[in-house]
Amino acid sequence: ALSAHTAPAIMATTETKPQKKKNPNRLMVDEASNDDNSVVALNLATMEELQLFRGDTVLIKGKRRKDTVCIVLADESCDAGKVRMNKCIRKNLKVRLGDVISIHQWIEMT
Known about the structure:
Blueprint: H1 7-15, E1 26-31, E2 39-42, H2 44-49, E3 57-61, E4 67-74, E5 82-85, H3 87-93, E6 100-105
């Protein structure tokens, strides 16, 4: 039988294993360095993981079923797992800095 003092220690060690990121499309919102309302910036490694290229059009989904379409640019100063967007895009998506959004490649239906 485990005592009350050893049980939390065992649980803590089982939960600290590094877990693989479940969904690479989910990124944290960060402040943009440019002021373009149609451009988001991603780290180059994140772009490769999502199979996106510079100039690709992406669909970004925010909160409360809000979404918008933007163009992707590479930004090495942007941390992996984050996306940089300006205030106008964040307002359209109803998100704030630090919120999580999902980003998907936009396939135009013509």
